Structures are given as structure tokens and as C-alpha cells.
Amino acid sequence: MAMTSKNPTDTIILRPSKGWIALNLGDLWHYRELIYFLTWRDILVRYKQTVLGAAWAIINPVINMIVLEIVFGKFAGMDTEGGLPGPIFRYAAVLPWGLFSKALSSAGRSMLANRAMITKVYFPRLVIPLSSVLGGIVDFAISLIVLIGMMLYWDVMPSINLLALPLVILLALLTALGVGLWLSALNVLYRDVGYILPVMTQLLLFISPVGYSTSTVSTQWQWLYAMNPMVGVIEGFRWATLGTIPSSGLPLETIVAISSAVAITLLISGLFYFRRMERSFADMV
Predict the structure, then answer these.
(1) At what angle do helices 127-134 and 165-189 cross, to 10 degrees?
(2) Distance (Å, whole) CA 79 – CA 9
(3) For 148-186, what is each residue's pLDDT tens digit?
(4) Tell me: the pLDDT tens digits for 13-66?
(5) How far, in Å, are 184, 188, 196 from residue 192 at the CA level?
(6) Which of 89, 126, 106, 95 is nearest to 45 (CA)?
(7) Which run of H or of E encompasses 15?
(8) What are the residues facing 2 on neighbouring strands?
């Protein structure tokens, strides 16, 4: 968006930029207070008029862990890595998955949910999906308390690997933002995306190592499997917190490298596509 003005008394004219324009990510710093406000607003609205409030941040992942333990642990009989109990092994995957899925769902619907702002006020539209992604960090931090309690109960001591945890969380957020940018822009053009999003999220759950380990996938296909960015995120999170790695197949470093490369590609392409479509958002929402 270009602005032209010769002196303070002139009218400021906003013109949509043409072609594949620069990302202008520096604008996000100028609107950092708006990002903070929108993120905090999403957190407050999420639990408004609920009886249990923020306790749902713990209840939801615990229920998911129980279901996965029954399906993959009891019925399918899939082993865990390092001899860890099934509940803690699967809960350690539910946490980053929950952060990703919540961020993806919020970001995918963010443009339509904030249509009133988009049509009335100018600001970098990238602020909206970004704040939607950041809103899940609070829930993640709350649910992390349960994992700490489980580690104490089963006497699983953290190691130096824990220092890599912020990088793993960052990778999960970047993955959600990259995919979310594509979906949020497409959702403005095609409202079908809003109906496809829950189905796609559910499908991603089963093709990600949430209820099982990557080592259960055939070695010859693990390089293709690792192109799902959440594979690197989940296995990296388990390694950082529990110290486990896939017992067979590709090395963990290779899995994380492939997943990170795909995540960065999705993010960069999503940024450019979002900025390209930004000019028409106000007319189409």
C-alpha cells in the first residue's frame, strides 16, 4: 500500500501496490501494540462466559491424550520410544499439535472474523493472522504444567535438550502461520475453505506422529513423511522434553531439517501470496 503526500495539508492517497510487492515486515513493528491488543482480545473472548474458563486449556489436551492412548496404545498396540509410559509419550505430542491446530484454525478464519476492522480502518492485514497464531501460546503454557507433573510422576528428568524447546515451539508457530496465511487469504475468495479446514486438520492429526512414533513408518518413506512439518515439530518436542528419538529410520536431525525447510517454504510463499491478495480483502470480505 503506497501513500503519497507533499505537505501536511495535502490529502493522503492510499494506492494498492501492483505485482509481487515487498513484504514490508517492518510495518509489524510499528503496529506491535495492535498485535498485542488483538492477541489479548482473542484470549479473553475464547473463555468468556465459560464455567471452567482457562481450565479448558488443560482439559482438552488431557482428553485428546486419553483418546489417543486408547486408540493407538490399547487397541493398535503401538509401542512408545525409550520404554516411556504411553500417556506421557502421547501427551508430549498433543501439546505441540494443540498449539498448531488451534493457531491454524484461528488464522484460517481470522480475516472473515475481523471483516469490520478490515473494511473501516487501514493497518497491515498481516497483523490479523499473526495475532491469531500468537493467541494459542497462553493455552500452551497452561497445558505444559500437566506435562511437568507427568514427568515428575514417572521420574522423567529433563536434560540439556530442553534448551532447544523454544526453537521447536517457534517452528510450530511458523508452520501454523505459513499455512494459516494461505488459508486466510483463500478463505476470503472461497468460503469453502472454512468447511474444509476442520477436515484437513483432522487428517493432519492422523498423518502426524501424535499417537505413535515416526519409527513405525517404513524407512524408505520417512523422507516423504518428514515433509509434513509437524513431524519435525512433534519429534523435536519429544526429544527436547523427554529425550526420545525415533528408534529406526532417518536421524532426528534429518527429519527436523526436512520439516523445517518445508515450513519455511510455506511461510515465505504464504507471506507473498497474502500480501498479493491484501489489496482485494476490503472489497471481498
Answers:
(1) 140
(2) 71
(3) 999 999 999 988 999 999 999 999 999 999 999 999 989
(4) 555 555 445 667 777 888 888 889 989 888 877 777 666 667 888 899 999 999
(5) 12, 10, 6
(6) 106
(7) strand 13-15
(8) 15
Q: What is the pLDDT of residues 246-258, one digit of tens each?
A: 988 899 999 999 9
Helix/strand/coil percent split, the chain, to 5: 70, 0, 25
Count, residues in the chain: 285
Rounded to whole angstroms, the Cα distance separating 210 from 214 reads 9
Instruction: Say how many C-beta atoms besides its own lie within 10 A of residue 271's C-beta.
Output: 17
Is 132 within 8 Å of 197 (Cβ atoms)?
Answer: no
- For the full predicted model, state whether its pTM sits above 0.85: yes
Task: Tell how far CA 32 is from the center of its chain.
Answer: 20
Mutual orientation of helices 165-189 and 86-113 as an angle, nearest 10°?
40
Output the nine-digit C-alpha cell for 164: 532447544
User: Which residues, 6 or more positions from 214, have their beta carbon under 8 angstroms from its beta carbon?
Assistant: 222, 225, 226, 231, 235, 246, 249, 250, 255
Structure confidence at residue 11 as a pLDDT band (50, 70, 90) = low
